[in-house]
Write a sequence for this structure.
């Protein structure tokens, strides 16, 4: 088997949150491979932990990927503030064609477009992907999983940070399908009576109070907060209310646009124009919606820039969804020129922590060798981009550790799914598998 087949077999997807099947990226051709270790979601430290603990595997993943895509250079992007990770990875890279690129502590340093420009000076064409400028970009944990796949080991665990209102913030590695409730308990439990979770981070994550949700291949972390936390309360506001406020209260001050990282990088993203569309008819909206086409959903406009606490990011989400439904493609400028004030307008993580009212939770969350051995796990059949898996097992069957339990439908984009431990299949539903530990 070549690397593409091994990675496909092992079910590797983008572990940074994107969930794109990794074998597809490996089939391209590029001159440089970038490992994304920027990790810019406030309070999350799982990529730093992966780099500190698994620098050799990370380097091996980068080198294997370079070989697969024909690249001569490898770059690992790490924030300079993560000194331990920088030292460990730099030591591992000595004498190789892979180098460390130090990044500042701003948000969103991990946005692929931003990282590509920082690390190589190249600009991805509007609406394009890194491959268009000769690059393959993968999250650092994805690359560790690629190295494991080459050794025949499938993805059956996930490393994630448990932070916020918990007794002992920490980063742990758990079997896929473990409940978030068990992860929060491992971090000493919530310190608030009515916890709400920001899964994947405060800026781009999903907000829920369902603690029994399972850890999947893209879960980078969980921030636990009280329901009455100001930002959580904002996130829980119904969509209709968000739109109604935006329609009546946006004063077109442009702060959302002036601080938008994609706009500052030179792309035609102008959230204030998208907000303007809220006040127009559906016909008018279709015109203005294009200003959202290259928004990366970083959330800065909604959670940091807007002085009126409106929801430009959510308006952009809606616009992009409308454009997709109408099959509208980007038709604006094709040239990209970074804003002359870009460097001075970056959003420091320290300022973001204050604005998000998270400064009190900004504690280290070091990796702990905590072993979680849940008696039952839930494996959703869809854990990343593309089609859900097709079950390869039936209820009542026994499976071995590492055995494939979900396959990719014919001709579809997707990733295989494997049992983290020896188990009996307790149930197979249209959306997930339940496995009981044997
Ligand atoms: S920052 Fe807020 S008020 Fe100003 S234009 Fe953007 S959405 Fe409107
Ligand atoms: S979410 Fe807002 S700030 Fe972020 S890229 Fe989109 S428009 Fe710009």
């Amino acid at each position: 088997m070549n690397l593409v087949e091994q990675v496909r077999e092992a079910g590797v997807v983008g572990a940074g949150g994107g969930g794109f099947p990794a074998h597809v990226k490996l089939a391209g051709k590029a001159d440089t491979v970038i490992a994304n270790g920027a990790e810019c979601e406030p309070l999350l430290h799982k990529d730093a932990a992966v780099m500190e603990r698994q620098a050799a595997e990370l380097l091996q993943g980068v080198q294997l990927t370079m070989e697969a895509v024909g690249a001569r250079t490898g770059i690992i992007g790490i924030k300079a503030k993560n000194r331990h990770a920088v030292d460990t990875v730099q030591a591992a890279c000595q004498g190789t064609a892979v180098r460390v690129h130090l990044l500042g502590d701003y948000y969103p340093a991990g946005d692929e477009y931003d990282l590509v420009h920082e690390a190589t000076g190249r600009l991805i064409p509007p609406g394009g992907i890194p491959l268009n400028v000769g690059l393959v970009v993968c999250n650092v944990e994805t690359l560790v999983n690629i190295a494991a796949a080459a050794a025949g080991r499938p993805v059956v665990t996930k490393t994630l940070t448990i932070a916020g209102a918990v007794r002992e913030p920490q980063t742990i590695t758990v079997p896929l399908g473990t409940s978030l409730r068990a992860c929060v308990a491992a971090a000493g439990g919530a310190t608030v009576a009515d916890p709400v979770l920001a899964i994947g981070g405060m800026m781009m994550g999903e907000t829920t109070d369902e603690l029994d949700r399972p850890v999947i291949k893209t879960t980078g972390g969980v921030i636990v907060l009280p329901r009455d936390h100001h930002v959580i309360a904002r996130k829980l506001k119904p969509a209709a209310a968000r739109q109604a406020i935006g329609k009546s209260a946006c004063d077109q001050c442009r702060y959302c646009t002036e601080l938008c990282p994609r706009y500052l990088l030179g792309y035609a993203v102008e959230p204030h124009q998208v907000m303007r569309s809220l006040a127009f008819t559906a016909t008018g909206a279709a015109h203005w919606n294009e200003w959202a086409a290259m928004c990366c959903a970083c959330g800065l406009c909604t959670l940091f820039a807007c002085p009126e606490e409106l929801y430009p990011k959510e308006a952009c989400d809606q616009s992009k969804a409308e454009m997709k439904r109408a099959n509208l493609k980007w038709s604006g400028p094709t040239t990209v020129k970074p804003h002359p004030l870009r460097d001075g307008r970056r959003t420091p993580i320290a300022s973001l922590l204050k604005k998000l009212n998270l400064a009190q939770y900004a504690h280290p969350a070091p990796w702990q060798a905590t072993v979680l051995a849940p008696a039952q796990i839930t494996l959703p059949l869809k854990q990343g981009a593309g089609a859900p898996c097709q079950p390869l097992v039936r209820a009542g069957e026994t499976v071995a550790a590492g055995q494939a339990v979900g396959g990719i439908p014919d001709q579809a984009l997707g990733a295989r799914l494997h049992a983290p431990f020896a188990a009996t299949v307790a149930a197979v539903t249209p959306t997930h598998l339940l496995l009981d530990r044997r």
Observations:
- The chain has a mean pLDDT of 94.
- The longest helix spans residues 55-69.
